[in-house]
Write a structure and sequence with these properties.
Layout (H helix, E strand, L loop, with lengths): L4 E6 L16 E2 L2 E2 H10 L5 E6 L3 H6 L6 E5 L6 H13 L8 E6 L7 H13 L4 E5 L5 E8 L3 H5 L8 H6 L4 E5 L12 H8 L4
Parallel strand pairs: 1-4, 1-6, 4-5, 7-9
Antiparallel strand pairs: 2-3, 6-8, 7-8
Amino acid sequence: MPPVVHILILAAGASSRMRGADKLLQSLDGKPILRRVAETALATGAPVSVALPVGAKARRFALSGLGVKVVEVADATLGMSRSLVRGVAVIAAGKAGPEDGIMILPADMPDFTAEALARLVACHAEEPQWIWRGGTEHGQAGHPTIFPRDLWPALLAVTGDEGGRSVVQAQRERVRILPLPGKMATLDLDTPEDWAAYLGRPA
């Protein structure tokens, strides 16, 4: 069996920098960014899981009708690592193969395309031993990141407010960066000002 990349969208954050709004429900092209990112991931043909906090009815509704697996994160308030650990545990307990990978995809990055994600998936299929990361055309590392199967136990041990950064740092010699167009690998929208600038209107 060829390697499969399982996409895990991290969407259990509290949007604390949005001053009361939920950044993952902000509208882009008439749909919440969370749904847009999920649709982009699904368009690659890969299986997609979405980590959500317990009781996130509005975020669940934003995903309604999509073929994603929702992973509830009861301890999401303890940091991003909880979403990572819960999501990886669910995927690892499934039918993942020995050369499969997990792509960690943030939910607040609007510019990813299915084509770009598919290129990363193809890189893993050809060389599944590496940690594949999206980056800028100038070589700056960004998102998403694909972790090979042998590093999943390390992901399950991550703590605090990180999404696998310590695992990447410990395995620097295995990192390969795939340049992606524009700023898609580094542009995220965390604050009202970020959203205003992205949408081209005054903050």
